[in-house]
Amino acid sequence: MNALPRRRPNPLSCLAGSLLLTAMVSSAAQAAPSQQLIDAAKQEGMLTTIALPHSWCGYGEVIAGFEKKYGIKVNELNPNAGSGDELQAIKANKGNTGPQAPDVIDVGLSFGPVAKQDGLLQPYKVSTWDSIPDDAKDAEGYWYGDYYGVLAMGVNRDIYPESPQSFADLNASEYTNGVALAGDPRTGNSVMMTVYAAGIANGGKAGADALNAGIAYFKQLKDKGILVPVNGTAQNIAQGTTPIYFDWDYNLLAMRDKLDGNPPIDVVVPSDAVVAGVYVQGISAYAPHPNAAKLWMEYLYSDEGQLGWLKGYCHPIRFNDMVERDVVPQALLDRLPPAENYRKAIFPTLKAQSEAKTAVADNWAREMGVQ
C-alpha cells in the first residue's frame, strides 16, 4: 500500500498482474481508538458476532486477541452461517437487544451494498480508514473490505496422489463421486464465487454470463456422477466422503495445517480460473452493543488485527501498507503461497457479483434440480 496518489488501479476489477492491492501510507495507519470509545465498549461488556469459524482467516486467535486486549466477551453466533444468513439475522432481530442479535457482520463484497440499501448497517470509519483502498470501501463508511483470497481446491492425496490442476481436469471419470462444493451458492458467497470461477474457466465473460456458465459446468459434473451431493468440509475430505472440494485458499491452507498430513492435503489454485474475493465488515444498524462493535472494527483494522488475519493465510486489506512500514514479520511472509499462483487473479466487480447473485437465485435450483 504505497505512498501514491489516491487514484490507483481498481483492486476489484480484472487484473492481469500482481494481486497486491495498492494503497497509501498514512499517519492514520498507526492511529488508535479513543479512550472514550474503549470505556464505552467496556461498559457494554459484550460483542455479538456471527459466521466466524475459528479456522476461517485465523479468527480464533483474532477473537481471543480482542477479548484479551479489552476484556470484552465475544458472544459467537452460528459460526457456519453464510453471508445471506448474516443479513437475515439482522432483519430477524431488529427489536432484540439480547444475545441473538448480531452487532457486526463479515460478508462477501456483494452483500455490503445490499445491507446498506436495506438499512441494515450503520456507518463508522475506523482510525486507519485512509489506508483502506478507496475501491474496497463504501465512501460513507457503511462497509469496508477486510481481507481477500482466491478460490482453490483441497485434494485428499491418499485418494488422488496426483492432484487435478484445473476445472477442466475434473471432468475425467477418475473423479466420479469425488468433487464437492462447500454449501449452497444461493446463501454462501464462497460457494457462489466457486460457481462463478467455474464459469470463467468455461468461457463465461463476467456477471450472469460467468455464473450461468458455472451452473452448466456443475450440472455436467452432477450428470456424470462426479459432483457429490454432500457439503465439502474438513471432516469429509479427511474421511474421503468429499475428497476434493472448493473453498477460499486461506480456509484450505488452515485445514491442511490442522490435519497435519493425516491425510496429506494439496491446495491447488485452478490454472484455468484464478478468482479472488474480497470480504467486508459492517456494523448492524440495530447493534445492541454499538460501541463494542466500533472497538471491534478498530481492532480488526489495526496492525495487530490485520496480522491476525495474515496468520490465518488471508491477505489483509492493509497488507501493502504494513509491508511498506516494515511491520509484517518475515516469518509470516514466508508462510504464504508463492506469488506466481496469484498473478492471473481477477477481482469480480460489484456489478458482476450483483448480476451473479441474481443469476444463481434464478437458475441454480431449476438447473441443478434442488430445492
TrEMBL record:
Signal found in the keyword field: yes
Keyword Repressor belongs to the record: no
Domain of life: Bacteria
Residues spanning the signal sequence: 1-31
Coiled-coil intervals, chain numbering: none
Matches recorded under SUPFAM superfamilies: Periplasmic binding protein-like II
Keywords: Signal
PANTHER family cross-referenced by the UniProt entry: ABC TRANSPORTER SUBSTRATE-BINDING PROTEIN (PTHR30006:SF2), THIAMINE-BINDING PERIPLASMIC PROTEIN-RELATED (PTHR30006)
Protein name per UniProt: ABC transporter substrate-binding protein
Species of origin: Salinicola endophyticus
Upper lineage: Bacteria, Pseudomonadati, Pseudomonadota, Gammaproteobacteria, Oceanospirillales
